[in-house]
Design goal:
Strand content: 15-25%
Largest sheet: 6 strands, mixed
Helix content: 25-40%
Shape: elongated
Number of helices: 10
Radius of gyration: 28 Å
Structural class: alpha+beta
Oligomer: single chain
Distance between the termini: 22 Å
Strand order of the largest sheet: 18-23-21-22-19-20
Number of strands: 26
């Protein structure tokens, strides 16, 4: 679909840095010459419309209903109608610009626009504005109410210069890129499903060996089993022990360290709840440890650290007693799903004492070594597969971004390609 695309016959300078040269028959206009602000009143039946950073503008109920700030009084709310151009004033720099697929209402932090004439298609300009956001031209052209939070208002948008293809070319561009977007999204979704399957396979593998369902040395079940008395564990090999975690390790929170004290380069890595996050000139630990995410969404997250490093206050450091194998113990904690043992507060935190009193299977040291070695090799293979698929997803997204940039700014002519596309269900770009 894209291999036969060619440039237009002739070009001229647009005078817009992020656009560059445009086809000779294209024009350049300011946003205020193309769109006017909409000031629709709110109706009783209107539900909240949200503009997301991926460009979708839809009823909140169509996508998700949690994780939003809820206004106690909807002061200044305005009506939104299907087909209008919607810009999130404080998230426009991140791409929250699109065409509404629903009737509803939105907060006064949104800019809702109507085209001044039928020659301006909101779907084309939503895509052009998202490209400007991707290239950081919205971020640098707007005032900020706080650091890294530029606010785009209609006067800012009104002064922006935008490419203006003839109306029929806007239609062709929207149709062509909508098709590309659907095909790209289907490919990405298929790869994301494969990632999920591989991650599930990895977790099943870890559970089978750590729980003793399979003898890692033979690939078969153990000869005899006994009840463990632990609900999640079930029966364990007859010669395995079942003990509390506190008999295997000690746990304590890492030391306080602020982001300001972390350097890009240094002698010792800094570990927190999400793994390695920087370097410092000092260290707090020297040896081999299992680190557990202590707070929030990272609570229960497991990683290992060896050598000299600084463990921040966002990690619980588990130091193993003699006879326990580090990588086996990390796999055990991962299987135990520690994020369920958090204390609910303003920010949930790991209940360390509760975790230390949990019961867990303890195979002999030589079995721990065998499990750790096998999981390490299996993990390498699965990780390589996951990395390859994630890279493929990244390349697909890069391909779409580059293609959008070339088509929206007229570097490639898609008129013939769009005309030859098969009929598909209508799906506006930017919606």
């Amino acid at each position: 679909m894209t291999q036969d695309l060619k440039p237009y016959p002739a070009y001229k300078d647009s005078g817009v840095p992020w656009v560059g040269k445009v086809p000779e028959q294209w024009d350049v206009r300011r946003g205020k010459a193309l769109f006017e602000e909409s000031r629709l009143s709110v109706r009783d039946q209107d539900q909240i419309v949200t503009c997301f950073r991926d460009g979708q503008v839809t009823l909140r109920a169509n996508r998700r209903t949690s994780g939003f700030m809820v206004a106690l009084k909807e002061v200044g709310y305005q009506g939104v109608r299907h087909g209008q151009l919607v810009i999130h004033a404080m998230d426009a720099f991140a791409g929250a610009i699109g065409v509404s697929d629903s009737d509803g209402k939105c907060s006064p932090e949104y800019i809702v626009c109507n085209p001044r004439s039928s020659d301006s298609q909101p779907a084309y300009f939503a895509t052009a504005l998202r490209l400007a956001a991707h290239l950081n031209f919205i971020q640098v052209s707007c005032s900020a109410v706080r650091e890294r939070a530029p606010r785009l208002r209609f006067p800012n948008f009104g002064e922006m210069l935008l490419p203006l293809p003839p109306c029929e070319e806007q239609t062709a561009i929207v149709r062509f890129l909508s098709r590309v977007d659907r095909k790209t999204q289907r490919a990405i979704q298929a790869k994301q499903k494969l990632i999920k399957l591989l991650e599930e396979q990895k977790q099943v593998l870890i559970h089978r060996y750590v729980a003793g369902q399979i003898d890692v040395r033979t690939g078969n079940p153990y000869p005899a089993y006994k009840p463990s008395g632990v609900e999640w564990l079930g029966d364990v090999p007859e010669h395995w022990e079942v003990r509390r975690l506190k008999t295997m390790c000690a746990m304590k929170s890492g030391d306080g360290i602020t982001a300001m004290s972390i350097e890009e380069k240094g002698d010792y890595p800094v570990f927190g709840g999400n793994g390695q996050r920087g370097f410092t000139s000092k260290f707090t630990h020297d040896g081999a440890y299992v680190l557990i995410g202590r707070q929030g969404a990272l609570c229960g997250n497991i990683h290992t650290a060896k050598g000299r490093f600084w463990a921040s206050e966002h990690a619980v450091v588990a130091s193993l007693y003699k006879g326990q194998v580090l990588d086996w113990f990390a796999a055990l904690l991962e299987v135990m799903n520690l994020n369920q043992y958090s204390i609910a507060a303003a920010q949930p935190g790991l209940a360390v004492e509760r975790v230390l009193n949990l019961w867990a299977p303890v195979p002999p040291a030589e079995v721990q070594e065998a499990i750790a070695g096998h999981l390490q090799e299996s993990s390498k293979t699965i990780t390589l597969g996951l990395d390859r698929i994630r890279r493929e997803i990244s390349l697909l997204r890069e391909y779409r971004t580059r293609l959008v940039a070339d088509v929206v700014t007229g570097k490639l002519d898609v008129r013939e390609a769009a005309a030859n596309l098969p009929a598909e269900p209508k799906a506006e770009l930017g919606a």
